[in-house]
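Our consortium's second objective concerns turning raw sequence data into structural hypotheses that experimental partners can test. To show how far this objective has progressed, the report includes one record in full. It was chosen at random from the queue rather than selected for favorable results. The single chain below, 315 residues long, was entered without modification.
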Amino acid sequence: MLKKGKVTIIGAGSVGATLAYNLSIMGNAGEIVLIDHNKEKAEAEITDILHGTSLGGSRKIYSAGYEACSDSEVVVITAGAKQMPGETRVELLSRNTGIVSEIVQSIQNTDFTGVLLIITNPVDVLTFAAWKQSGYDKSKVIGSGTVLDSSRLKNYLSGTCGISPISIHGYVLGEHGDTSFPAWSLITIGGIRLADYCPLCGKGCNIKGIVDSASDYVHRAAYQIIKAKGSTYYAIAQSVSVIINAIVKDEKRILPVSTVQENFMGIKKTAFSLPVIIGSGGAERVLNINLTEEEKKLLFNSANYISSNIKDAGY
């Protein structure tokens, strides 16, 4: 039987440890488990987090083996090789497919029936691979998708427009990678479409310039961070915490997560991000939203690109 609010994180690297810390601070996960082949490191990360819990946050945090997955509401796979400076997420594919495959097999050996959440890159390909190997329902295997990309877009527009990012709504869709794109037709500021907001703003900005620079920023952001400090982990951990919160609290929150698509515009094998209603059942409903013709073309190209990488991975 599932334990409500129990979250098991596989991988005690920068992302996994930061996620455990973030969940502890938020206090939404009633039980947090960290699994890693390096048990000493997992224990050290847990101890470091526990030393601050008297000041607030979750207290039931511990390291364990894969048996902890059996009654978890959410199991998160963060383990994998790091993306090197100049390396694309897809170039990580051959290194990380084998790692995730072994992890999924270990999870299958338990009685896990919750939601499997993939973070390891390339997340769209590995979401499909994890679904295919596990045999779980599509709604129960989701990837972190473009939740982070969408947050990066809002952060950029916030700085450019001088508006709080929480008043900016919209999505980056498709791959969590270089073929992603902001769906500009859906982006609003305070409920006002961007194209209508810009003339009201009074700054006299060039809308095309904002669109081009924002799209470029979303694509370059991770590479710049990786080049400077080796990896990204704060924002992705926060993004995944939001997804987990939507599941354990059954929020029915709409987030652009990656889900498996078995027949998208003739593409038989792919996984990519569209807005999805997230609740206790995982990806409870994928919203096939209205896009412009240009956006539909970009989404098709992105989905097709992911599909080609899924085939290269042997799925």
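The partners drew two points from this record. The longest helix spans residues 207-229. The mean pLDDT is 93. Both points have been shared with the crystallography group to help prioritize constructs.
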